[in-house]
Amino acid sequence: MTLALVILAAGKGTRMNSDLPKVLHPIGQAPMLAHALRAGADLAPARTVVVAGHGADQVRAAVAEIDETIEVVLQPEQKGTAHAVDMARAALQGFEGDVVVLYGDTPFLRPGTLERMTAARGRCDLVILGFEAADPARYGRLVMDGDRLERIVEYKDATEAERAITFCNSGLMACDAATLFSLIAEVGNANAAGEYYLTDVVALANARGLAVTAVACDEAETLGINTRGELARAEALFQSRARADLMDQGVTLLAPETVHLAMDTVIGRDALIEPNVVFGPGVTVESGARIRAFCHLEGCHVSAGAVVGPFARLRPGAELAEDVHIGNFVEIKNAEIAEGAKVNHLSYIGDASIGARTNIGAGTITCNYDGVFKHRTEIGAGVFIGSDTMLVAPVRVGHNAMTATGTVVTKDIPEGAMAIGRTEQVNKPGFAVKLFDMLRAKKTRQTRG
Ligand code: UD1
Ligand code: CA
Q1: Based on the domain organization, do 242 and 164 belong to the same domain?
Q2: Using CA of residue 51, residue 38, residue 138, residue 201, what is the dihedral sign?
Q3: What band does 449 get if pLDDT is binned at 50, 70 and 90?
Q4: Sequence-distant contacts of 155-164: CB under 8 A, at least 24 apart
């Protein structure tokens, strides 16, 4: 079955009280819209159309970053959900197949739920996703007659008896494209809100003698986000699901509730994550790696057998090969660290490559920035960089070379060479004792005076 997704994302999200369009607020460090898109991607849609309105330019830019093949259409004025879907009509002109309508602010759909909807399409012309609401509040009510969905009545328009119904509309629906658009053309706005309700297509379809049904999902999946409080709860829910998924996949989390994951975090089997680790976007940790406590990782790759932290920061472009050790208070950015290399204490390695088995001494810094440009540091294999070495980039260190502690490296170091660049030490006999005496005498005079 060829499918097109239509994702509604034009609403203002007034109650977020934000300059950012609601669908771009992050959950797991990805816009909530990205979560809806990911859920939809399980259906392998041939087309995806996002309907944007408020903050459309921002939405367009965010969508382009997620996937350039996704189309964005504009709903200039928010006249209701049917009107919103209608905005995709032109984009889907001539499209043959099903349309699945999703909301951009409903990030928790489980894989499988959409499949159940499309499976139900095999039996019915129009399928709605419903849920048993613990507190039905202002949701649209599904008026069922056995398996048949008769109509959806919005809370505002519902009678007391209809308001007592707890089976509610999630907002998702699946229908043949041509049928859906012809039903939408019949939707009016004579209701309490003066809006074009997408939900009206249900009664219209029944009037045509089409088969309409509802498929049920868990309420948690349809959780919509309208306020910052709901956003915070959604984040908590996302985190607990993501942690549970990782543990199911064989990852050890010593204190799961203290590990913060991003939507795209990938961690291999038998990796071990200690407490208080934050994963930003774009992190892959391979099997058997260990991330020790209090690390912050983003846009990086950690290979099998590597050990990171405690208290390490891996920034975008940090590429750690097998068995690399990154220790405490070390920051790595845009740098490839080859197999078995060690950067164990208090270092900054940026815009660099470090060869296999090289050891970087404590306090080493790649001075990559001259105030205007960034420059690279290239260090070969089997190198020993002495503690407190300043590598003033651009600079190259050959294989098996060495730097003396405290060296400021401003010139390339040939393979096998030792670089020493520091002022020579001078010892002045007895001078320390004299100086102490002088200072102590001064202090005594001051406290008396
Ligand atoms: C809608 C449903 C209701 C359902 C509820 C589930 C209708 C008429 N009602 O109500 O049955 O129980 O969702 O959450 O469909 N949007 C646009 N353009 C518009 C209007 C809305 O893009 O002109 C988008 C919103 O950004 C949002 C979604 O559609 O993502 C739902 O709109 P919203 O106004 O929140 O609908 P509800 O009143 O909650
Ligand atoms: Ca809503």
Answers
A1: no
A2: positive
A3: confident
A4: 156/191, 156/192, 156/193, 157/191, 157/192, 163/136
Q: Are 43 and 90 contained in the same domain?
A: yes
Residues listed for the chain: 449
Q: How far is the CA of 88 from the centre of ligand 2 (A)?
A: 20
Write down the pLDDT at residue 67: 94
The reply to whether ligand 1 has any atom less than 6 angstroms from the CB of 83 is yes
**81, 138, 221, 231, best to mutate for ligand 1 pocket (most atoms within 8 Å of CB):** 81
Distance of alpha carbon 93 from alpha carbon 97, whole angstroms: 11
Boundary residue ending a domain (222, 238, 253): 222
Q: Which domain holds residue 296?
A: 228-419
Is residue 441 assigned to a domain?
no
Residue 439 inside a domain? The answer is no
Amino acid, res. 250: G
Answer yes or no: do 120 and 75 share one domain.
Answer: yes
Q: What is the pTM of this model?
A: 0.90
What gap in Å lies between CA 289 and CA 244, rounded to an integer? 19
Taking Cα atoms as reference points, which of 384, 313, 325 lies closest to residue 350? 313
- Domains contained in the chain, number: 2
Residues 6+ apart with CB under 8 A from 271: 251, 252, 285, 286, 287, 288, 289, 290, 291
Angle at 323 between CA 319 and CA 329, to 5 degrees: 65
131, pLDDT greater than 80: yes
Q: Model confidence over 277-322: pLDDT tens digits?
A: 999 999 999 999 999 999 999 999 999 999 999 999 999 999 999 9
